[in-house]
Amino acid sequence: MSPSRRREAIEQVRRVLPVSERRACRVLVQHRSTQRYRPKDDAEEQRLTADIIALAKDYGWYGYRRIHALLGNAGWQSLLRGG
């Protein structure tokens, strides 16, 4: 079962039964960090992808490290670090 489906299952259990998140996660074998995870915003990811493609077209001879530096200079630092 995928993590998102497990998240839904745990939420369902907590709606029906008076159990804590910790207990529900333990019984259904899911880490609490996985339970609390919220997917990233797709629109922001698409903008980043579009910027990468635009830079790659303009600077095709640059490698990924240089493109990464250009993105950082353009203000993408928070997303580039994975957060």
Automatic annotation (TrEMBL):
<protein>
    <recommendedName>
        <fullName>HTH-like domain-containing protein</fullName>
    </recommendedName>
</protein>
